[in-house]
Amino acid sequence: MIRLKNARQMDLIRASCRILAETYKKLIPVVAEGMTTLDLDAFVRDDFKKAGVKPAFLDYQGYPAALCVSVNDEVIHGIPSKRKLKSGDVLSLDCGCELDGYFSDSAFTLPVGTVSLDAERLIKVTRECLYLGIEQAKVGNRIHHIAKAVSAHANENGFGIVRQYCGHGVGFAPHEDPQIPNYISPGPNPRIVPGMVLAIEPMINLGTGDVRVLDDDWTVVTLDGKISAHFEHTVAIFPDHTEILTLFD
Question: For 115-126, what is each residue's pLDDT tens digit?
Answer without folding.
Answer: 999 999 999 999
